[in-house]
Amino acid sequence: VHPNVSQGCQGGCATCSDYNGCLSCKPRLFFVLERIGMKQIGVCLSSCPSGYYGTRYPDINKCAKCKADCDTCFTRNFCTKCKSGFYLYSGKCLEKCPDGLEANNHTMECTSIVHCETSEWSPWSPCMKKGKTCGFKRGNEVRVREIVQHPSARGNPCPATSESRKCVVQRKRCQKEGKGKKNREEKRKKSNKDESKETRQESKGRAARRQNREQRENNNKTQPKKRKAPNKEQDLAPVDTAH
């Protein structure tokens, strides 16, 4: 071993030197060179830092730098996150997205253009005017639809979600609120009256039946009991005169 190389290192180094830092790493750790001013020193890490990707070899695991426009990468030719000003698309960092795609400034990726989508129209509403369906001849009816998919930045905007058109109805008078209330009150009173009448008739019927039953019972009590007819055979029996 070279005199400047030590095997009693710290921080995951297998071998190291006072000037260059780590020269080799312990198993499963990645070796990477860090620049400190004009000097580079070796360090051993459990995972590669941002801007590097890891490669494993039988003798050593190393961290290699990503491309200049790539912030994090899986390999040198496959980026997973781009630096500011670039948009990620299929592992590459682009300044402008291809045709048919748009730049998503939130994710910094090239994504598909999404157009607005709406549901089917609802049926037309009843013909109305000033919130009423009576008292007029010409009014308006309305139908609506809902947005089921909002568009992306470059997608087709959403159309109107409501439509109105003129309509004609047969003129009819509106029923006055007071009159309608009066009619309902009269119907309620009539119904209560009919129910009361039926109840009184039932009560009279029960009273008449009870009176007839009591009268029959009184008649049975005041009528004299019939005497039992004598037994002629007993009256004609011979009298014993022996004594």
TrEMBL record:
Every R-spondin Fu-CRD domain range: 11-110
Pfam families given in the database record: Furin-like_2, TSP1_spondin
Protein name: R-spondin-3
Organism: Struthidea cinerea
CDD domains tied to this protein: FU
Domain Spondin-like TSP1: 116-171
Task of the protein: Activator of the canonical Wnt signaling pathway by acting as a ligand for LGR4-6 receptors, which acts as a key regulator of angiogenesis. Upon binding to LGR4-6 (LGR4, LGR5 or LGR6), LGR4-6 associate with phosphorylated LRP6 and frizzled receptors that are activated by extracellular Wnt receptors, triggering the canonical Wnt signaling pathway to increase expression of target genes. Also regulates the canonical Wnt/beta-catenin-dependent pathway and non-canonical Wnt signaling by acting as an inhibitor of ZNRF3, an important regulator of the Wnt signaling pathway.
Gene Ontology CC terms, in alphabetical order: extracellular region
Family the UniProt entry places it in: Belongs to the R-spondin family.
Gene3D superfamilies xrefs: Hormone Receptor, Insulin-like Growth Factor Receptor 1, Chain A, domain 2, Thrombospondin type-1 (TSP1) repeat
Basic and acidic residues composition bias: residue spans: 175-219
Keywords assigned by UniProt, alphabetized: Disulfide bond, Glycoprotein, Heparin-binding, Repeat, Secreted, Sensory transduction, Signal, Wnt signaling pathway
UniProt GO molecular function: heparin binding; signaling receptor binding
Keyword Glycoprotein in record: yes
Originating gene: Rspo3
Subunit structure: Interacts with the extracellular domain of FZD8 and LRP6. It however does not form a ternary complex with FZD8 and LRP6. Interacts with WNT1. Binds heparin. Interacts with LGR4, LGR5 and LGR6.
Region feature Disordered, mapped onto this chain: 169-243
Subcellular location(s) per record: Secreted
GO biological process, one term: positive regulation of non-canonical Wnt signaling pathway
